[in-house]
Structure formats: C-alpha cells, structure tokens
Amino acid sequence: MALDIIGAGFGRTGTDSLKEALTILGFGPCHHMHEIRDHPEKAQPWHDYFCGGADLDLDLLFDGYRSQVDWPGAHLWRESAKHYPDAKVILSVRDPESWYASYAKTIKIFRQTEMPPEARHMKQIQEFVEVFLNDRFDTKDKAIADFEAHVADVTSAIPAHRLLVHELGSGWAPLCAFLGVPVPDQDYPHTNATTAFQKNNIELQR
C-alpha cells in the first residue's frame, strides 16, 4: 500500500485532528506518532532507522497506511514526496507563537520525562525524537525560526497543485476541495488538545 497523502506539518499543528479527518474521508489508516505510542512493536523500525543505522525503507515504516501526519513521518516529508510521486502533501500550520506554546506544554515535557523501564517503546520514541529534533527547539526564538523555515522549505519544494497548506481551524472545506471529496455531514474533529496530551503523558509514567 503506497501513501496517498503525506503530512509535512510539525507536531502540535492539529495533526491528530487531521488524522481523524482523513480517516473519516476514507484515507485511513493514517500514520501518526500515536500509532507508535499505542502499538509498541511499531517503534522498533523507526528506532532502527534513526538510531541504529538502518537504511531508510519508507514502505516498511508506513506499511499498511494510506496516509501519514505528524512526527516522525513529517520529518521525512521530502523523501516521502519523492518516493510516492502521486501522493498529495498536506502542510498543517498554525500561528507560530501558538504552536510553540502548545509544543512547550506537551512534546517538550515528554522529551524530558523519565519513562519506567517497562515502557521500553516510549524510551525508544524519546531516543529517535532526540535524533531529529536535537537542539532545534532549545529556545522559543530558535523554535519559531525553525517552524517558519520549515513552512518556507515545504512550500518552495512542493508544487502548488500537489500541496495544501492547512491552517489549524480551517475545517473541512479546503481539505475536501483539495482531495476532491464531499464535505461530511459532521463536525471537523477536534482531538488531542494540550490537556489530553498531558494526561496521556502522565498515564505512560505509571
């Protein structure tokens, strides 16, 4: 199964809601960091690539998925766009200040959390996240500059006909128009708010 949709947006840009939206629209299963969190066996191939020197095998990493959003897949947007030339690219974005505030309350804390020994796959996730995030977001100014540079990189590299810049809160209309599907008769999903992320992080430490 080749990817039909490549998500290039950073975590905390509404990616979990986008995952649910794509599933509703028939583009699931959709890969997201939560897939790795909730299925421990899925962490190993990512860890092998980022930390173990394994060759990049996108078909292995995204085996069984029609779409992908969020990190770690979003870190490989350029490689995925080349490997899946027929796939469309969605760059989820939000106000950079708002994005950093959400990142600082969620992913930044997760990176610093001491996981219990039995949560081996969560430790693996932390380890490979450190590889591709490294010191990029050490300060607010550095993080926002990286965020803005990423948006510029994606929008300059991907042809306009293949790319949707999907603003947080923009709902169904632009997404459905881009994908050529009808707007569903239900509200656009709103999932994985900051409080939900923090609650899940606490549960993982128990």
UniProtKB/TrEMBL annotation:
Top-rank taxon: Bacteria
Keyword tags: Transferase
EC number(s) stated in the UniProt entry for this protein: 2.8.2.-
One GO MF term attached to the UniProt entry: transferase activity
InterPro entries registered for this protein in UniProt: P-loop_NTPase, Sulfotransfer_4
First-tier enzyme category under EC: transferase
Pfam families in the record: Sulfotransfer_4
Matching Gene3D superfamilies: P-loop containing nucleotide triphosphate hydrolases
Protein name according to UniProt: Sulfotransferase family protein
